[in-house]
Records
---
Amino acid sequence: MSTNDANVAQATSAADSKTPLLFTPIKLRSVVVRNRIMAAPMCQYVSHDGGPTEWQLVNFGRFAMGGAGIVFGEETAVEAPGRKTHHCAGLYNDAHVTQYRRINDFIRSLGATPAIQLGHCGRRASAHGPLQDRAPLTEADAKVGLIPWQGIAPSPIPASPGGALPREMDHDDIRKNIQLWREAAKRSLDAGYDICEIHGAHGYLIHQFLSPVSNRRTDGYGGSLEGRMRFALEITEAVRAAWPADMPLFFRISSIDGTGGEWGMDDSLALSRELKARGVDVVDCSSGGITGDGKLAPLPRVPGFQAGYAREIKEEVGVATAAVGMITEPSHAEALLRDGHADIIAMARELMDNPNWPLQAARALGVKEPLDLVHAREAQRLRLREQHRKDYPPGMAIEIPFGPNDVVPYSWEDLSPGKRARH
Ligand SMILES: Cc1cc2nc3c(=O)[nH]c(=O)nc-3n(C[C@H](O)[C@H](O)[C@H](O)COP(=O)(O)O)c2cc1C
């Protein structure tokens, strides 16, 4: 059993003791995930009116083809104004449901578990994408159809100095916002997702409520830690109630605001305890994103730089965690699981670089049948290639035919194709 409770367990029957932990299935409520590798959420900025395009099918599909256990898409907004850009993803109408279902059916057909990250960007709304400057949209953008809109936030403080001023949410806004999360969770189920994650990190709306950097409210949604956590916990309760009881709920936190921030690990421990009590199964431990006055220094981006947060939450709270951040080596991923840092290893850019990382990690860690991870269509051909390698070991004297009575000795060891004696 993992540290959580009966909701998270090793699916031990499917694995023998020699199976690396990374490739031991994990049971999350009623959902059995084939391994502990999670393609972390990655915003794509290519959606049309919030809906996915061929890009998402191919991009997220390739992580499933490569053998990942959980395949997230991207932060998916619960309402159109909750997107950062006009091209961010959303799940706020029924047309979206059909569009995502196609992708999720494909991901599931490849043995992976499709997961959605629901989000709302709050004060970080109405911006340019990362290929431009992420700066707020202006009247110049409006002339080309990219109409700016005003973001919402716990307090009227721009995301960064000189940024657009968000509108402070009143109690009616808060109530309506929670309702949007509830509806999006229901749509997520209809769209075929098996895991739902609440995005409470990276300086977006929920994190804006959590951190005193962005929350200066004096009502029941601000002030004390309890007040600042209230919005996050009410959303969690709403999503948990709308999301089936036998399906897993994740919550992504910024474990700390960043160097010099105001939200720290003691706060994250308190939050995680409350999340666990409300039926969150996995706390996905990221960090940063509250830009504040722009003085918050980023963490040193070294391998596993956030894994210590996952470990502390797992140990202190007894909830399952996901570790993320610069994890690229199979032996490192395995060690993080074995040493009890986390139950799941999340990866973003390494999978972008190498979508077949799970297959290669399975080989590197000595999994018995690594090719079981990929579709039978590919496995068959790759097994045949392995057989070729066994049939023709290095150093074997072979001849390549050039014609009916014409053979040429060939040494593939030094990669020198023999030359035919021409008459
Ligand atoms: C292109 C890109 C988009 C991202 N979008 C999201 C997102 O939508 N939601 C989120 O929580 N994190 C997002 N992240 C952060 C990743 O999920 C991950 O936490 C981060 O990249 C660190 O992991 P890595 O070192 O394996 O890339 C994004 C990262 C990248 C590279």
---
Amino acid sequence: MGFIDIHTHIVPDVDDGAKTFDESLNRIRYLKSMGIDTIIATPHKRTNLFEFKSDKIRQNFNLLNDRIIENNLDVRIYLGCEYYFGPDLFEDINNGSVYTIGNSKYILVEFPTFRFGNSDKESLFRIFTSGYKIIVAHIERHRYSLESFYTLEYLRDNSALFQCDIMSLGGLWGEQTRLFMEDLLKKGFVDIISTDTHCKEFEEELLRISFDRLKEIYGGDVRERFMGEIIKKRLSLL
Ligand SMILES: [Fe+2]
């Protein structure tokens, strides 16, 4: 059984990820060579930074899927979203138009990088009581907001899952982030590991280095533990 990558910027020309269909397809071939057979495309949705053009996203997603089939890549791709914790997310929840991950009630949410204000606490609670659950995107990059008021335990008690970017382990976001991710791994606070690929050329080498590092820390086939059947089940994809 193949592995799943739940966080990718692989739909071309819709955010800061892939620019062309060829870039997307090259990265999909690479992911496939790593044993990944299921990909969730998660374009950014964040007011004032990434305009989320639903029609264009859906169109390019469908065209990409056609190319995957034409090229016999044998990879399943689903459309999701990486929400920034802000108005777009709350609006979609209120309208019942949320892009979830796979066939589940999980939403991929990027937390603020620095402070997590008091009013956010209420918003977070609203999500927890909305019927949706959250996957915290690259939690290793949010050490400061973690220190501001909530704890990993509080999030976990409210059914949150924690996703880490594999390339953080290879040093993409600096030494502090790398060490924090190692710490989260050792303490059992990592549920899912993904590539968060933006389809840049340098990523292939970094992905290889990062997976090697993960193997060193964990031993065995780490892909099964963090990208395997258990994750597909949680996302209702099996
Ligand atoms: Fe991302």
